[in-house]
Amino acid sequence: MKKSKHILSKTLKIIFILYAIFLIFLYFFQEHLIFFPQKLTQNYTFTFQQNFEEINITTEDKTTLNGLLFKTENSKGLVFYLHGNAGNLGAWGNVAKTYTSLNYDVFILDYRGYGKSNGKINNQEQLFNDNQLFYNELLKRYKEQNIIILGYSIGTGFAAKLASDNNPKSLILQAPYYSLKDVVHHVFPVIPSFILKYKLETNKYLNKCTMPITIFHGNKDEVIYYESSVKLKTLFPETTLITLDNQGHNGVTDNLQYKKAIKNMLDW
User: Fold this and answer.
1) What is the largest CA-CA distance in the chain?
2) Mean pLDDT score of the chain, rounded to an integer?
3) Contacts for 245 with CB less than 8 Å, ≥ 6 apart
4) 196: phi then psi, degrees, rounded to nearest 5
């Protein structure tokens, strides 16, 4: 009996130590589990079959960030697009044609460490500040009542925060999370909240948003569970939730139901 208790006690200690090591690893390396940037050389030349301009800004900590502004004739305004957690503008730039075809200019930035943007991501406030710097730069060219902020996946939390601190025409969220910690707890309930440096609380940011909000979410999303958007809709009943039937996490912009809805929105 004593031997069994000793074995049990020793086993529990080992499990606790392994769990503690796992939490320490998660805390210090969570950027590598959330963000998957792909770098581009500084002399890389973007090639898109439409008119665009590169815009670079320098942050207070002397980091140079890169973005692309896609232009259309007779522009109605600007879609300020915040992309997902992988890749770079070389690929993300392809989403612009969906909106330029509807006579909206499109701006997309690469986060720190992505594409031709320098530096590395250290915390969420840093990302919020970077996004605001670019937004301020675009305000020199566009009236805010003609700017639509749009975020996809990880970018939805950034978009909600940016919209909450400004007053754009509207906010569009593609496959958003209620909060990033909510997604983590949904998949890994054993991870405590205090470990997560990136909480990205969309549910709180939307409290300050007074502009129209539209959410698009596929009911077959395998990355950010669909009920995340249902919870946001419940919390903010005035928000429009459009369910994309049989749509997974990727390819929302190419979804025909999405294209039809976004055309109606932007034409209006």
Assistant:
1) 83
2) 91
3) 218, 219, 257
4) -80, 115
Per-residue pLDDT tens over the stretch 158-209: 999 999 999 999 999 999 999 998 998 887 777 777 778 889 999 999 999 9
- CA separation for the pair 146, 68 (Å, rounded): 18
Beta carbons within 10 angstroms of residue 260's beta carbon: 10
Structure tokens at 223: 């990355």
The residue ranking higher by pLDDT, 27 or 152, is 152
Q: Residue ranges of the domains in the chain?
A: 1-34, 38-267
Helix (H) or strand (E) holding 107: strand 105-109
- Say which CATH topology domain 38-267 has: Rossmann fold (3.40.50)
* DSSP reduced 3-state for 39: strand
> Counting every residue, how long is the chain?
268
Which residue carries 């909106």 as its tokens?
99
